[in-house]
Amino acid sequence: MTTTNLKVENICRAAIEGATMVLRYGAEGMERNGLKPDEIRLVGGEAESLVWRQVVADIFNQPVVSPVTTEAGALNAVFQAMWCYINATTNNSDKTSLIAICNQHVKLDKSSRCEPQPDMVLVYRKIYHRYLQLEEQLKPLNR
């Protein structure tokens, strides 16, 4: 940013981009451990924003889609409670997985889908590389 473009909308976008860079940084740790999703499922307040969903798709270079119910915290607690109850009250041969419960109850909002835009993927790839450099330089301050 410069003094000529220091505007509220640019500061807001920078906050969105910064938060998404942190998410990608964390996701890369999961990838190093063999967990690589085919698409990003975005939940919470950011899932309601088309701009934020598109930024996530471009930074991650993966499609983004949100579930119909984007407030996932309480819903996930319900799923865990269901899983505990079902597995505590059924015999061993009828056990169910948490994945099966989620697959049964989570419905995706197809209209929320955002595909990565190749030109923006290239822009964000350069920005992310700079982000990683800055992250490395700032590590001594986090001790």
Helix and strand topology:
Layout (H helix, E strand, L loop, with lengths): L7 H25 L7 E2 L8 H11 L3 E4 L4 H18 L8 H8 L2 E7 L3 H21 L5
Parallel strand pairs: 1-2
Antiparallel strand pairs: 2-3
Helix pairs in contact: 1-2, 2-5
Protein model, in words:
The chain is mainly α. It has one domain: Nucleotidyltransferase, domain 5 (2-Layer Sandwich), CATH 3.30.420. The protein is 58% helix and 9% strand. The protein has five helices and three strands, in the order H-E-H-E-H-H-E-H. Helix 2 links the parallel strand 1 (40-41) and strand 2 (64-67).
The helical percent reads: 55-70%
* Distance between the first and last residues' Cα: 28 Å
Indicate how many domains the architecture comprises: 1
Structural class: mainly alpha
The first-level CATH class is given as Alpha Beta
User: Tally the helices: what do you get?
Assistant: 5
Number of strands: 3
What's this model, at a glance?
The chain has 143 residues and is mostly helical. The protein has a single domain, classed as 2-Layer Sandwich (Nucleotidyltransferase, domain 5).
Keywords:
143 residues, mainly alpha, Nucleotidyltransferase, domain 5
